[in-house]
Protein 1
Amino acid sequence: MRKAISALKNDTPDYVVAEFFYGYGNNYAGVNVSNLDVFLYSLQKYAPHARVVVLVDRRERQFVEKLSALFPLHAVVTQPVREQDMEPLFGD
């Protein structure tokens, strides 16, 4: 994650595609919803116009709503992901 955040400082992406893992309260201490929170806060600072595409396992799909309440998400794609699922997301 540190390398990804460092890369944001040097290169502003148009899109970010990231896999979502819900926190379940274990090592996130109840502060963060998922593995993406810290990165998405940095994204707001360094690339506020980047669109975020989240890949999620269908068993964790219900928890993405908590993330989307905190951060704007361009799309959420349930895994397994096929090429035809992704193509329409990058059309503009």
Note: The two ends are 28 Å apart (CA to CA).
Protein 2
Amino acid sequence: MRVVSPGMATGRVARVAPQRIPRRNAGRSLRQALRLVRSTLQQWARRRRGRAELARLDDRMLRDIGVTPGDAWREINKPFWRP
């Protein structure tokens, strides 16, 4: 940001003017933001599917993979956004 001073003689406080962002960088930033949003949504969907699969397992299957029913219950009941 650049500081724009209206002049010392007027006694006004200096204002901060927004700096122009080149179009090339603005487009790149938007693409990066959209990519981040997409990857976050995909990660949430993977967690939701994984927890749904875990909920379908019976006690014998949980023992086979080394997970206690209590651990499975805690994981199943987590919100999708929480790792």
Note: The first strand starts at residue 2 and ends at 4.
Protein 3
Amino acid sequence: MELLFVVLLAASLSLGVRYIFRERHTFGSAMFPAIGGAVAAAVWAGLTWLDWSFDGGWIWVVSLAAGPVVCLVIGLFLPKRRLKADAELLDSLSRA
């Protein structure tokens, strides 16, 4: 049950990360919540396998912070690559 709460909270926090970026039109609106929820679920599962107690505070902090942090890192690099790829595709299509 706690895993469900972690995924939902991390997805909600990751949705807010989307609005930090100016070039947010280069990726979909559901991408960050999906990535943030998946990362938080993976971190939660990994930490429980490492015998972190699910009722402890640190497992919640680490799991809920991991999703938005990964989304922040992706958001820093993805728009530049997407704009560059779009420009290259437009150039190649306009030559044909």
Note: The first helix runs from residue 2 to 17.
Protein 4
Amino acid sequence: MKWLLVLTALFAFTASAADIAGTWKATAQGPNGTMERTFLFKVDGDKLTGETTSSLLGKSIIEDGKVDGDNLSFTIKAKFQDNEMTLRYTGKANGNEMTLTSEFGGGQGVEWHAKKVS
């Protein structure tokens, strides 16, 4: 009986965690209007990998990615006007929706709203 309770609790915890793996389309408001970015997330345990693409910064590889339940964090390196920069993302998934914040130099940040497409 005790094992049944443990297994039930474990199943409930696993079922409540968001399925972050897959393709997500995100938008954010920038100084020149709406920005778009696509994320392709791969999850292996608590490790997050994949890539992301935007029309402004092109394709970047997801590095240092971690998943903890519905929370995720990762970095990407991107080139903007011949300058390479590192952007740090943190976020939280809620079903098929996700909110991410990207931070770059000087504490500046952008809030992204994403929907899972596959």
Note: Residues 3 and 9 are 10 Å apart (CA to CA).
